[in-house]
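Usage

Read records sequentially. Each one opens with the input sequence:
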Amino acid sequence: MVKNEIILAAAVAVVATACAPEIDYRLVPMDGHRAAAQPVTVENQDTALGTFDDDKYVTPSGLSFDEDSPVAEVAEALMEVQPRLVSLKTVVGHSAGEYLNLRTDPDLPLGNLFADALRAYGSELFKVPMDFSVTNFGGIRVPMPKGAVTMEDISSMFPFKNYVCYVKMKGSALTELFEQLAGTKAFQATSGATIRVKDHKLVSALVGGEPIDPNRIYNVATIDFLLDGGDKLNIGALAEDVTLSTVLLKEVMLWYVKGKEAKGEIIEAKADGRVIMED
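and closes with the structure output:
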């Protein structure tokens, strides 16, 4: 390509970029409405994926395929596996709203809810009150849906094998942890502390509403992923002692959701100002 052609190509690219329309992205539920398919539930497994009629497979939208066609073979395989998925479709709780996993928000309602659940669960599991808890936003992979919450929702939210652990930490080390968190993009999900950050520097931190005592030992509930480098945190290096468990994060959320359902309570999450990050 000669020089003039290069200049022309660059000019065209600039004009094309300048004239490109703004794109408005929006979330569209994957509910199959365009194909007349339906989400599979315990109640509609026999029809949500279509039916077999004699030697034909009929889709939910009425299209017909021979029983030995690739489409029919896939449908048959999906139908055969559904009985094994019944437990995943079991409703375990109900949520007042859809709570998103926006990892850039340090005061995220879903993160707050789960960090609170982790601190409460840790207190029961390790038989000692947890002063503080921290887990990572990245471990929450999908939103909590509005309305019925199923086992499948919980498994989708927490697909990783992250295990609950108990860390004993001096107040001076806890302050160092807060300073590390302040330097990250979104601080991560926490419970038990009120923290203020400015320009990614720790300004103030209270635990249980009180200033941190540098010599006191604090009980911290967290996950093994954050002990040695996960999300650039090394909580294990700051610890006086670490106790690991075999409890997965999804079991913590399941415990919380089932507990609310047993009491007839709806799950609610909110931002409460526990972490304030200023530019």
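Summary fields computed downstream for this record:
- The domain at 93-278 is CATH 3.90.780.10 (5'-nucleotidase;  domain 2).
- The chain has a mean pLDDT of 85.
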